[in-house]
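Reagents: none. Just compute today. Amino acid ABC transporter permease.
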Amino acid sequence: MQRQSSNIQYRQQDASYFEQRGLSRYAGPWSLWALGVGAVISGHYSGWNLGLSLGGWGGMAIATVLIAIMYLGLTFCIAEMSPALPHTGAAYSFARSSMGPWGGFITGLCENVEYILTPAVIVFFIGSYLGSIFETPAAIQPLWWGIGYILFVGLNIVGVELSFKVTLTVTLLALAVLVVFWISAIPNIDFSVWALNIGSDGELLEGGGGPFLPMGIGGALAAMPFAVWLFLAIEQLPLAAEEAVDPKRDMPKGIILGMITLIVSASMVLFLNPSLVGVGAYALGQSGEPLLDGFTAIYGSGLAKVLALVAIIGLISSFHTIIFAQGRQIYSLSRAGYFPTWLSVTHGTRKTPHVAMIAGACLGLVIMLVLFVGLGIDQGSAVIGGTLLNMAVFGAMCSYIAQAASFILLRRNRADIARPYRSPFGEPGAWVTIVIALVTLFFQLSDPTYRVGILGVIVWFAVAIAYFAIVGRHRLILSPEEEFAMERGEKIGEKSGGTVPATPKR
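Predicted 3D structure written out:
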């Protein structure tokens, strides 16, 4: 049976279609907190530091404040929208209800780029750490990447209960490692000499005492894409909506507590790591293992390998957690027909979207190998890792703009939807998110080092949009997100206290 809306065609599936795509509920507020913090925490271990080479310490500090403001605006928008529209679709679901099928697809596509590439960035840094530990040549880095994907995709397939337990455990361990680092670093810092050791020409300034903004305000703005790495993926929490026990109560609590945790951690890392005696902002701006550099400066090179194994916990935490999000994001778009529907089939007994996770991992690995070969195996972490990072951030910024716009449109056009939680920042918070995200995009495109990767993402967008225009829009399915949007979803929400059935009404 088909239903048509404008130039969009829907196919109505029977109950067996959704039985093959079932999920199970497990997550409470602390599981959701761990999912959000765990997804981001690797950015406090590696990646953020590359912005020091563009803006110096002061520029990176300003960039971090601006990006933190953007994420506060975004997360409070999501905290309102996710319990009002508690579907696995998250960003796609918000945009589908506010901007129609095309808006939903394009928003979901932007988020898809983020969740395909973010695990790739993290496993790249995992490989960098493991290469240092076992002294393996750069040519076999893809072996570490493959092992990482196989192990953690496998853990996520085993079951949602195990996945959340592993997430909580590794997130707590990752935070514990950071706390140990902070306590160890405090007696060993000299901010003026080491954090301010970049000159106005971008070169090393022996003895420190350099300017707060060595590259001016332009350098601070150019560092914004790397500051994003301190918070990127906190917005993935709504992807667990259909696996949360009580999404309308727990989702806002989990995402707000997660954001507070990340702001505290980001502040400590940003101040202490570059200030360490023997490290400094200049060296960190070129490093693939900044936390390991800090531990080595404190405890000496003799413990370097042990410390590297400790430091890798944070990377594992985020990698495992974002594999979870990647699977749910692909699953939701596939279940609704935007992506091929075979991608959303879940495991018969474990009820996990195993096909989506495997497909996303394979695509991420292919992109890494293309960059690895195209840029050359001799390229440093700052180039290959930075290219992947900027590609992921580009997709994220586009997604954030669309989600903030969805919040504004839902406030204006769907005022009657039941909202268990309301953002205290309202529409102004959403507008601030949009403006800062647009500035970040501008400076990404202004950086010639990473522009090729971003152009590759734009080509990805073009191919996917062409697919949807020619094929996908004629094959949509009446999934929960689609029925909510089409059949006055606010009434459904009111009748069920802000939740919707796991399968559409027949």
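The mean pLDDT is 85.
Action item: order primers for follow-up constructs.
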